[in-house]
Amino acid sequence: MNIIALHGGLDTSRSRSFMEILERAALDGFMLLAEGRVPAVEAVLNVLEDSPNFNCGFGAVLNMDGEVELDASICDGETGRFAAVAAIRDVRHPVSVARRLLEETSQVVLAGDGALQFARQHGFPEENCISEEQLDAWRKARESLARGEKPAQNLYTGLAYHGDTVGCVVWDGKGLTAASSTGGCSLKLPGRVGDTPSLGGGVYATRLSAVVCTGIGESFVETLTAKFVDEKIAGGAHPQQAVELALRRLAELKGAEGGILAVDAQGRIGSAFNAGQFPVVVMEEGRVRRDFEPVNLRRALSAH
Ligand code: GLY
Question: C-alpha dihedral over 235, 238, 242, 243, to 10 degrees?
Fold first, then answer.
């Protein structure tokens, strides 16, 4: 048995066109699963990084200076290896740079110019990741700020619709791998790094679980939420119970919204969120599970 589960980011649209891209990404991952879990998660996230619909790669949100700076990571639970790039510019597939770092070095995080230099040395071409839509939204936001007004756009998407970090977890019957990719949050300070390259914050994998998170990066970093999910699974919780406990804890500690997706070493899935939307696709043995829906805890958590 094998599982590929991925999400398109907190409050990203669940319309057909978005779900179709997620399903195509899952299929691309499945086609590479025989080569390994890391090639599979890379293939999944590359599809989303190519699409302007998701806040990663091309079409990611812009920072305060009008630049795209991307974070991405891969964590393999079987080998205990982790690698990430942070605040990297002019690269369309940061998760592929993270894979090169994972496979060709023993270092774990490269940031900024160093990450860019590593990418160029490994043949990654210079690519402009700024979409027209994001540039237009950024200009409007800066105009609002210049007038002393709060930008009307969503901080995590830069746009009228919402969307955040994308992530993928894979179980191939032998081990577990997690990977995430993001543009972070709109109008962030240049150099700001979120939870995606934060091991145990927004991403984690062990021999027992693989976990990816989406939402306000700082709140995941400060609560080590991905690690909390793994600890609960290690203690015997079903992944669904673990992600729901983690979201309740996140809401209590930080008052934050989030989305979490996890799979364990029995191929059991957990997925929950406390926001408007959370598009998730679960593929089992190459087939999309039509019965799977993440649990929305928004009402339950806002009652507290
Ligand atoms: N979840 C995206 C970020 O805050 O970096």
Answer: 160
